[in-house]
Backbone:
């Protein structure tokens, strides 16, 4: 069976309990379900659609990817199949009621390839076996090449009459003996792939290569066995061995580089431990269990050096955690008793006991993995173009080789076949198929290591063309948290009472202003006093609900919390602070203003430098916000943004964005992902700061996991660099073929030189893309940021709650 080790029963992966090891339940459209639905899918697997990921063995090119996709899509019950030629991974969306994993994996096997669970230990072992086999084939080819060149050398340097016929024939026989094991062992995968293609009546990049190898060996063998025949004039063992050695060198180096770049996804997916110590409530002892057997409420013990297998709260012990995967920052974070830990972060210091709160698809780690999996299987427009032309191009290669052989055959049949071999080899479009996906995936891996997740690979192409970048204000240019500066209440209301009522509504919202109100309401009893029903949130405006007083002092009424317009009152003139207004419907139906809360927000320290860096790179910057014009202008002035628009509703932001697009601008939008869904989806490309929003619900193309605004312009610069690398790769691949094909057809390029050129072209494409893995580009305008950070070193940051306590003014 494809997809399992020989020691594993073929039916193992058909067990629904195993499906979570390499997939997750999803909707019929193919998008992952929320956590509660995932748990429902665990109990009733046949009632949902599943999204599974597998690693593929035996594929080498875009044509292979298309073949596997066609094989999977032909299976009844498989709704969607996406295969990446760069990562050798596939995503399969299937219905358990109609098909099982063993069935669609068998379809992959029948197509000539093998599939195995992407999150299984067998996948890692298979990668190691593949690398070892490639190394051995390369070493055998290198040894045979050196021996054959030693036997061929006398024929190159001998003068007429120096070599007798018997000696020349002896050298040919010796070369044939040495070449034979190389053809059988080192060239075996190429011949197996070609025979599979012939049997299935299709073409892939291995077919012309295998034809070239077979023709060269057959012609040389015929010349060895029959020196007086039509092919006896010359043998080409040296060209064959050199060609195979160069080709295997390129493929082995390409494999190593691919594992280093695109292999980052597998490293992330296998970050969670396979097992963990779980406490038995009956005996109080700890025993190791499989990580996927954990459920909410379990108590586990995580040792130093282990990754936390689930989200939870520390109940015993103190430690430090490495949360670089979640934030992009490698600085360890203190995690004392009572603090929360996240799946995928590492325990660095001492053993701790953790009460499990979220497992599987409920964790933020699972959301990150899902986004990375999705991005790794997406195909940018340029890669789709290469996929579409791969098969027709290969057919054209075979026709060109046949025509070249026919042209040269009357003058010299042996030379004619070697010309055809050179054409077959030199035109193999490996470099063309790798040009775009390798560069895009390398850039995506680099961004992920620095805390930026790429949800859409097409976004890298769009971002490279951006000339206008639009910022949201709250939670984006300003810090995510706000602080309560002052409370202004109506007559008869105390500040604590007003704060308690406002917090009772605000605790149902994730908006930064709502969180600031909740943080400032330090008395839980005041919040518990109010019973909230029929709560509604208008994105970007505020909250409304029906509120009743548990003490019976205040009658049940409708209450509004949000902007002055939302609360139905007039905005205060001349105030520069952000105000949240609390109003209620009186007995006579008239809206009564109960309190105003002045909130202050801190501009991110790096914001001015980021804006300057973007403008220096030719990207215009604009600020759109739903806040009052005065507050927006104040933040814009501090950040150095000239174009400002305030008091925008979500639809108003979208209208402004569409007006910029209609003016010919390529627009990127940066928001907090909470209430900017329409405008993030409407932009050519978009960023969201994802710390406060479920990643699966974000509409952005890029999700910034950390808290650094500098990642936005750095991503823009990396996208531009990536597109330059893609263009360089495509121009190189096109120029190489334009130069070498005429030389091969004219008979001026021997097979070994064609093999060297083919291997070097593919290797150059991969090496050029590997430059993107060095890190994010430096920003020329960021010394100001470094100075600001240096000047603030040693100061303990204050939370919004602490700021609220220290700046709250008496009424």
Residues:
């Amino acid at each position: 069976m494809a997809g399992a080790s020989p020691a594993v029963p073929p039916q193992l992966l058909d067990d629904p309990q195993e499906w979570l090891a390499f997939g997750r339940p999803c909707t019929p459209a193919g998008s992952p379900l929320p956590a509660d639905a995932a748990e429902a899918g665990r109990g009733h697997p046949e009632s949902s659609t599943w999204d599974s990921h597998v690693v593929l063995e035996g594929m080498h090119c875009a044509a292979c990817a298309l073949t596997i996709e066609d094989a999977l899509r032909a299976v009844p019950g498989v709704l969607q199949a996406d295969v990446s030629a760069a990562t050798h991974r596939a995503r399969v969306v299937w219905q358990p009621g109609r098909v099982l994993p063993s069935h669609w994996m068998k379809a992959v096997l029948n197509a000539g390839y093998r599939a195995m669970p992407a999150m299984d230990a067998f996948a890692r072992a298979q990668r190691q076996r593949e690398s070892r086999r490639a190394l051995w084939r390369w070493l055998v080819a290198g040894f045979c090449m050196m021996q054959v060149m030693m036997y061929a050398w006398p024929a190159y340097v001998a003068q007429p009459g120096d070599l007798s016929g018997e000696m020349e024939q002896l050298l040919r026989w010796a070369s044939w003996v040495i070449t034979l094991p190389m053809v059988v062992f080192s060239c075996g995968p190429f011949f197996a792939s070609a025979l599979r293609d012939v049997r299935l009546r299709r073409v892939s990049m291995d077919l012309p290569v295998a034809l070239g190898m077979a023709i060269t060996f057959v012609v040389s063998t015929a010349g060895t066995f029959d020196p007086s025949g039509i092919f006896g004039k010359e043998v080409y063992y040296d060209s064959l061995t050199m060609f195979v050695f160069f080709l295997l060198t390129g493929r082995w180096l390409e494999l190593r580089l691919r594992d280093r770049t695109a292999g980052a996804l597998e490293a992330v997916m296998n970050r969670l431990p396979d097992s963990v110590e779980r406490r038995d409530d009956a005996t109080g002892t700890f025993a190791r269990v499989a990580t996927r057997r954990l459920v909410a409420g379990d108590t586990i013990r995580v040792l130093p050096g282990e990754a936390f297998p689930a989200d939870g709260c520390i109940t015993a012990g103190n430690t430090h955690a490495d949360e670089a995967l979640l934030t992009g920052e490698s600085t360890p974070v203190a995690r004392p008793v009572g603090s929360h830990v996240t799946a995928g972060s590492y325990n660095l210091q001492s053993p701790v006991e953790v009460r499990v709160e979220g497992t599987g698809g409920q964790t933020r780690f699972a959301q990150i993995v899902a986004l990375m999996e999705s991005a790794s299987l997406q195909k940018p427009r340029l890669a789709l173009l290469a996929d579409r032309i791969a098969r027709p191009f290969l057919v054209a290669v075979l026709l060109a080789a046949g025509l070249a052989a026919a042209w040269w055959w009357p003058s010299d049949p042996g030379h004619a076949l070697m010309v055809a071999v050179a054409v077959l080899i030199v035109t193999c479009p490996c470099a063309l198929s790798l040009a775009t996906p390798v560069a895009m995936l390398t850039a995506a891996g680099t961004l992920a290591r620095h805390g930026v997740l790429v949800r859409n690979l097409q976004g890298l192409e769009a971002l490279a063309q951006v000339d206008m970048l639009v910022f949201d204000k709250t939670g984006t240019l300003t810090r995510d948290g706000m602080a309560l500066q002052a409370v202004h209440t109506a007559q008869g209301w105390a500040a604590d009472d007003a704060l308690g009522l406002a917090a009772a509504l605000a605790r149902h919202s994730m908006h930064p202003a709502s969180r600031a109100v909740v943080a400032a309401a330090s008395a839980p009893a005041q919040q518990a006093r109010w019973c909230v029903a029929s709560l509604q949130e208008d994105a970007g405006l505020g909250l409304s609900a029906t509120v009743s007083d548990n003490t019976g002092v205040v009658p049940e009424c409708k209450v509004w919390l949000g902007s002055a317009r939302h609360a139905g009152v007039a905005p205060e003139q001349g105030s520069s602070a952000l105000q949240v207004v609390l109003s209620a419907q009186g007995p006579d139906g008239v809206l009564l203003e109960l309190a105003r809360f002045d909130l202050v927000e801190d501009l991110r320290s790096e914001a001015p430098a980021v804006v300057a860096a973007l403008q220096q790179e030719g990207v215009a910057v604009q600020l759109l916000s739903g806040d009052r014009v005065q507050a927006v202008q104040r933040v814009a002035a501090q950040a150095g943004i000239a174009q400002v628009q305030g008091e925008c509703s979500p639809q108003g932001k979208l209208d402004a964005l569409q007006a910029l697009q209609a003016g010919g601008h390529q627009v990127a939008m940066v928001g907090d992902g909470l209430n900017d869904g329409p405008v993030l989806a409407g932009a050519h490309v978009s960023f969201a700061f994802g710390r406060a929003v479920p990643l699966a619900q974000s509409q952005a193309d890029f999700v910034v996991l950390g808290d650094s605004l500098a990642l936005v312009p750095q991503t823009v610069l990396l996208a531009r660099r990536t597109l330059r690398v893609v263009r360089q790769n495509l121009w190189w691949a096109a120029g190489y073929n334009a130069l070498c094909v005429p030389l091969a057809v004219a008979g001026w390029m021997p097979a070994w030189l064609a093999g060297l050129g083919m291997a070097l072209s593919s290797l150059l494409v991969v090496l050029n893309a590997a430059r993107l893995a060095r890190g994010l580009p430096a920003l020329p305008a960021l010394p100001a940021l470094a100075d600001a950070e240096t000047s603030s070193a040693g100061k303990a940051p204050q939370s919004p709650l602490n700021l609220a306590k220290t700046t709250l003014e008496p009424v």
